[in-house]
Amino acid sequence: MQDRPTIKTAIPKGRYQIGDYSATLLSEIESPDVRAYRFILAFVPDGQREPRFYVCSESAADPSQPRLCHLRVVSETLSEIVDSDPRWADADIFAEQALELGAQALGLSKQQIIKLL
């Protein structure tokens, strides 16, 4: 996965179960990557250790709009910014959209999202 986020440290802010996947919402991310992550939602298949899909909120580094963030999806075959908006700087709004994007991408749209933490 070429654009997989490199995470040195992060604080888990939420955990979810969606079908055969667990998803963890990370904040306060320290990374050596060029991108400045506000939040990452990582989707891990049950029984595995490595995420298969990520949704990231990345600071746009625009001094005129300090809350502007890019919403990026990352998988084995894809790394794409799907939207840019200040609302992706809000953890709850980001998590709701990221869960929806991940469920669609992984074919889990019909699965119930269960908040664990």
What is the strand and helix layout of this fold?
Layout: E1 9-18, E2 21-30, E3 37-45, E4 53-59, E5 69-74, E6 79-85, H1 91-105, E7 113-115
Antiparallel strand pairs: 1-2, 1-7, 2-3, 3-4, 4-5, 5-6
Explain what this protein looks like in three dimensions:
The mean pLDDT is 95. It is built from one helix and seven strands. By secondary structure, it is mostly beta strands. 13% of the residues lie in helices and 44% in strands. It is globular.
Describe the global form: globular
Kindly name the structural category. Answer: mainly beta
- Which runs of at least 5 residues are low in confidence (pLDDT < 50)? none
**Which whole number gives the mean pLDDT?**
95
Rounded to an integer in angstroms, the radius of gyration calculated over CA atoms is 13 Å
The DSSP helix count reads 1
Helix and strand string, N-terminal first? Answer: EEEEEEHE
Cα end-to-end separation: 28 Å
The fraction of residues in strands falls at: 35-45%
Give a quick rundown of the structure.
The protein is mostly beta strands. It has one helix and seven strands; from the N terminus they run E-E-E-E-E-E-H-E. Strands 6-5-4-3-2-1-7 form a seven-stranded antiparallel beta sheet, covered by helices on one side.
Which features does this protein show?
117 residues, mainly beta, seven-stranded antiparallel β-sheet, 44% strand
